Amino acid sequence: MMINKVEICGVNTSKLPVLTNAQMRELFTRMQGGEISSRDQLITGNLRLVLSVIQRFNNRGEYVDDLFQVGCIGLMKAIDNFDLSQNVKFSTYAVPMIIGEIRRYLRDNNPIRVSRSLRDVAYKALQIRDTLVSKLSREPTVQEIANELSLPLEEIVFALDSIQEPVSLFEPLYHDGGDPIYVMDQVSDDKAQDIQWLEGISIREALRRLNERERLILTLRFFEGKTQMEVAEEIGISQAQVSRLEKAALSHMRKFV
């Protein structure tokens, strides 16, 4: 039996090779000289990089195989565009491109619909961003991206914000070995305010002061959402009687709430 064997897209991750910096530079030199097999070796030798990136997206509910394949596309783009003359480690250059490719995939499958024109601006901005990363060997500013596209800064910001994928309320923000802190823990809940809590107590106390029929009518009407006609049929009286009893019960409750 093989220990620590995990297969993704048919790839046995326990047997993935790891390339040294010297091997990477030699393979890039040969690939850029036209040797196709060197490109294949670079892809295989950096699949662990893709695996490390897709772990960041484990809580998205996406199939790992799908994320791995998309991440491999980002890896191949990084290999094809990497400039050996820049004094930058390949992983430093490749990781943002792999992440960008996965984020584009997630945005395309986003249940929240964004207008085509806005999406086009956002994708053009992301393409310019990748180009500037290669050119500047650093993360470009939004203003630099806006200048390249000859668009206002505000339009670029708005377009990029519009295609951000939704965040789950159960996504962990912090974990120190104990109980994690989730997004929902940082969201305020106006319904939990003391004043509304007290109002709930007052309403329950007022309901207790009604007779059984009045309490039943208000429960069916306002807690179960039934119409006066439905209430009338359920308790065997006319709709007009339900209306009259309901008004009397509400008037009675106002004295105690």
- The oligomerization state is single chain
Q: Order of helices and strands, N to C?
A: EEHHHHHHHHEEHHHH
The averaged pLDDT comes out at 79
Structural class call reads mainly alpha
Strand ordering within the main sheet: 1-2
- Whole-angstrom Rg: 30 Å
Query: Total number of helical segments?
Result: 12
> Which overall shape is indicated by the principal axes computed on the Cα atoms?
elongated
Largest sheet: 2 strands, antiparallel
Helical proportion, percent range: 55-70%
* Poorly predicted runs of 5 or more residues: 1-5
Strand content: under 5%
Q: State the separation between the terminal residues, measured CA to CA.
A: 71 Å
How many strand segments? 4
Kindly describe this structure.
The structure is a single chain. This protein has 257 residues and is mainly alpha-helical. It is built from twelve helices and four strands. It has helices at 21-32, 36-45, 47-54, 64-81, 90-108, 116-136, 142-149, 153-162, 194-208, 212-223, 228-235, 239-254; strands spanning 7-8, 11-12, 172-174, 181-182. A two-stranded antiparallel ribbon has the order 1-2. The protein has a two-stranded antiparallel ribbon with strand order 3-4. A hairpin with a 2-residue loop joins strand 1 (7-8) and strand 2 (11-12). The longest helix is centred in the middle third of the chain and has 21 residues, at 116-136. The model is unreliable at 1-5 (pLDDT under 50).
